[in-house]
Amino acid sequence: MNIRQLEIFRAIMRSGTLTAAAEALHVSQPAVSKILRHFESQLGYPLFDRVGGRLVATAEAQLLFADADHLFREFEVVRDLAVRIKERKVGLLRIGASAPPTFALLPGAIGRFQARNPEVKLIVRTLPAEELSEKIAVGEVDLGLTLSTIRAPMVRTELLRASPVVALLHPGSPLAALPHITPQDLQGQRLISYGSHADVGPPLDQAFERAGFTRRVHIEITPSIAAVPLVRAGLGVALVDGLMPWEDFPGLVTRPFLPQVLMSLSLVTNGSRPPARFVREFTRDVRACV
């Protein structure tokens, strides 16, 4: 049994005659008749009774037709999908990002991308840098955006921009009246920020040390968005990335932190394999939003 035999059999069942089946498949009637006879010979039982010059499907043919018809319907779906993929009407792009670029960049980049590719499915995963690096390396994520440095042999990193650290304050804080926040201003304040093990930790520690102080983190956070409910509750002042659109969160005030400490926004992809289909196009949208 082969797929051509099933195709011929299905066409005869649907059209009722050898001639109509041949016309539907754009082949000759003798070719259809020959393939049918060979198919019946292989099966060991007839599929049609010849009654008065007409073909009448046998019970065995009726049983076989149900699955054969289902098989070809599924095949037609796959064939149509292949055509749509060729025409760039469908596809898949898997994006991993830490919280700041998820909030700050992805809405704009995705909006631009989907305006041109409305049928492409996007999978967005919010991931810490370590997990993002692993997903990129094994091919589970096509591209990533992160504020943390990723050092892995198979991961390609492109610096997109530098983002300064800012101070996040409760509107009722006396520091909210200041134009900017310094290490001296934070003395006596409960500090919410990244630990010294984070990429930006050592530069922040050094900024405090140069000012003659020690950076003491009272509440250590990993994603910067975790500072939002803490600052709102009046539990301290946060030093966090300036990429997050903090103005979208009511009940918070942001001020520049001086001396300036920068965090690097990077786009990461797998450097050991060709980029996935839509990576270059989406990367252009990310750069435009940056």
CATH class of the largest domain: Alpha Beta
- Work out the helicity level: 40-55%
Please identify the oligomeric state. Answer: single chain
- Average pLDDT metric: 89
The CATH architecture of the largest domain would be: 3-Layer(aba) Sandwich
Question: What is the CA-atom radius of gyration, in angstroms?
Answer: 32 Å
Largest sheet data: 9 strands, mixed
- Overall, the morphology is rod-shaped
Q: What's the gist of this structure?
A:
This protein is of the alpha/beta class.
Report on this model:
The protein is α/β, with parallel strands linked by helices. It has 3 domains: 3-86, Arc Repressor Mutant, subunit A, CATH 1.10.10; 91-159 and 265-289, D-Maltodextrin-Binding Protein, domain 2 (3-Layer(aba) Sandwich); 163-262, Periplasmic binding protein-like II (D-Maltodextrin-Binding Protein, domain 2). Helices cover 41% and strands 22% of the residues. The chain contains 10 helices and 11 strands. The protein has helices at residues 3-15, 18-25, 29-43, 59-86, 99-104, 106-116, 129-138, 201-210, 227-232, 279-289, and strands spanning 48-51, 54-57, 91-97, 120-126, 143-146, 155-169, 191-193, 219-220, 237-241, 253-256, 262-270. Strands 3, 4, 5, 6, 7, 8, 9, 10 and 11 form a 9-stranded mixed sheet that branches. Helix 8 links the parallel strand 7 and strand 8. Helix 1 crosses helix 3 (29-43) and helix 2 (18-25) crosses helix 3 (29-43). It is rod-shaped. The chain starts with a helix and ends with a helix.
